[in-house]
UniProtKB/TrEMBL annotation:
Coiled coil: none annotated. It comes from the Eukaryota. This is Class II aldolase/adducin N-terminal domain-containing protein. SUPFAM superfamilies: AraD/HMP-PK domain-like. SMART domains: Aldolase_II (SM01007). One of its GO terms (cellular component) is cytoskeleton. Residues 31-212 form the Class II aldolase/adducin N-terminal domain. GO terms for molecular function: actin filament binding. InterPro entries: Aldolase-II_Adducin_sf, Aldolase_II/adducin_N, Aldolase_II/adducin_N_sf.
Length: 269
């Protein structure tokens, strides 16, 4: 997803404002995150009440995530739970559901170690889990996959309830990657904004869909797939990085946000 007009003024303006409980900045982030949850349901990347998207409130050590008991298509700005980086609830939102501890284990670790990361997305979409379970991981055999740049991997350790795993997740992600494939588990993307993290999960999921279909078409025989040289892989990644350097994903997410406004603006409540 190349964003060649990322400096457009409108991309940096507040989406929503005027909520009685939250500052304009926090309300904007809550609306964007709630819209992202609704989009996950729209694309059928959700899994009942599981998986997580998070967003840090800038200037704080507080992150927002979904109440554990609501479907993604039910999430609203004010239902999001606010927790600190130690997993303590700061604001329960307008429900009594609490939050899923595994979401804190994975996402809290990343927010603690990577101050450049303000948003994360984690999914168990079927094509994503399929590629995560594939021994060779993500194949850079199509343009969509090549645009993702650095992709890192984390070995499966079971359901993420062990705080000791946090250090290993951090090490697996590294200091610069924004794409982590959790082997046998699912996908995770990061960004300096909800828009960036969502744009990456959209691209990563699409790359996984293409790979699953391609391998099915050739009966799993990778020799029948036209390869892309390392030189061209690097060229694609660098070109995409250059065009996306500022405001990655903002135009795309604004379009998605407008779609959610048209379909059901209740996510702003």
């Amino acid at each position: 997803m190349i964003n060649s007009c990322s400096s457009d003024k409108e991309l940096y303006e507040i989406y929503e404002k005027g909520h009685s409980k939250y500052s304009d900045q926090e309300y904007t982030i809550r609306c964007k995150l709630a819209a992202a949850y609704r989009l996950m349901a729209y694309f059928k990347w959700d899994e009942l009440i599981y998986n997580h998207l998070t967003a840090r409130i800038p200037g704080t050590e507080h992150i927002l995530l979904n109440p554990f008991g609501m479907r993604f298509d039910e999430i609203t700005a004010s239902s999001l739970v606010c927790v600190d980086l130690d997993g303590k609830v700061v604001d329960p939102g307008n429900t009594t559901h609490g939050f899923n501890y595994t979401g804190y284990v994975i996402h809290g670790a990343i927010h603690k170690s990577r101050p450049d990361v303000l948003a994360t997305v984690h999914t168990h979409s079927p094509p994503g889990v399929a590629v995560a379970s594939y021994k060779d991981g993500l194949l850079l055999t199509n343009q969509t996959a090549c645009t993702l740049g650095e992709v890192t991997y984390h070995d499966y350790e079971g359901i993420s309830t062990d705080k000791d795993e946090q250090e290993r997740i951090i090490k697996s992600l590294g200091d610069t990657s924004n794409v982590l494939i959790l082997r046998n588990h699912g996908l995770l993307t990061c960004g300096d904004d909800v828009a960036a993290a969502f744009a990456r999960i959209f691209t990563l999921t699409k790359a996984c869909e293409i790979q699953v279909q391609t391998l099915s078409m050739v009966g799993g025989d990778q020799s029948k797939i036209t390869p892309i040289s390392q030189e061209i892989q690097d060229k694609v990644a660098n070109t995409h990085k250059m065009f996306s350097r500022v405001g990655y994903g903002k135009k795309e997410f604004k379009a998605f946000y407008n779609l959610m406004l048209q379909l059901d603006p209740s996510f702003k409540n």
